Amino acid sequence: MEENFKMVAKTLFGFEDLLENELIQLGAQNIKKGVRNVAFSGDKGFMYKANLGLRTAVKILKPIHTFTVSNEQDLYTKIYNMPWDNYLKSSGTLAIDATIHSDLFSHSLYISQKTKDAIVDKFRDTTGERPNVDLKFPDLKINVHIDRRQCTISLDSSGDSLHKRGYKTATNIAPINEVLAAGLIMLSGWDGQTDFMDPMCGSGTMLIEAAMIACNIPPNLMRKEFAFERWEDWDVELFEKIEESLLKKTRDFHHKIIGYDKAPSAVTKAKENVKNAQLDDFIEIKHEDFFKTQKGGNSKLHMLFNPPYGERLNIDMEVFYKDIGDTLKQNYPGTDAWFITSNLDALKHVGLRPSRKIHLFNAKLESRLVKYVMYEGSKKGKYMK
């Protein structure tokens, strides 16, 4: 039996509860929620499973050593003394990233450099050969986290951020991050039991993440590589077994996922990404201006979108947000409409009172995910508080 060990899944601000819940569903043990992270334990197979199956995680780290640190020399010595030959060959390659919350050290790049020096010197002193740095495809990616005086050294099992799912070859000017999109859909409570619409779909990220959630498809099946595939203990048979077990849990979906965009180039890109994700059977994309559309049929609709914001488009925000409110009121009865915005002033012009507001960040922009519930059978602008 493989031994269990501690891991840390990193996530975006506001997604900690979602990630905790995902880890419970996957079968993690000793789950402990932090800020922008959730710690848990599992074996090597579970590490593979977490990387393949978690929608709201951006990294899965495996801590291997924790110590207190008092200065740069102390850091160097303690890292030098670690048994690095357990993890890396002297002819291998490495990359290091550091996160610092400490008054002892001010520069994360300097800490990365110091860590690299300690590891390289250790190999050179014991074998006469030294590993090289490779920032793109290292054999070992190491994470250094210093919080005040406590330093944790972890192996990064993911490599590239897990938002890089592998289906996106075409993007528009400011595509929404895949982890953010998945988290928004989960926060909005959509469970695949109604039609789903993104009326400003850009490169199709929200639609693809919604289809994967509806069908319970693991989000990272299409990734070209995880960092753990270069580790000394990489077990391809175990990985394939985990992949197979996750695929057995996919389910049917009996509703529609619809995307609109008024830019023909966005529609083309979105269709290409949907095809890459092999989800054409579930997603329909049309070249439409949302403000000229109306809801088809009487069935309940779940709408979620990321309206363009001022930093990237030259539009009159007051008019734009008023048009969103008017279109929802007049043309979309029986709809739960959610959208994320970082333009908090513009929200006042929607002309509806949101029934929910959730505080989030879109990249570094402070944002709100808002919900408007449109009554069925009324075009007079009734809405719920």
UniProtKB/TrEMBL annotation:
It holds the Pfam family UPF0020. SUPFAM superfamilies: S-adenosyl-L-methionine-dependent methyltransferases. InterPro entries: RlmKL-like_Mtase, RlmKL-like_Mtase_CS, RlmL_1st, SAM-dependent_MTases_sf, THUMP_dom. Residues 46-157 form the THUMP domain. One of its GO terms (molecular function) is rRNA (guanine-N2-)-methyltransferase activity. The keyword Membrane does not apply. Keywords: Methyltransferase, RNA-binding, Transferase. It comes from the Bacteria. This is DNA methylase.
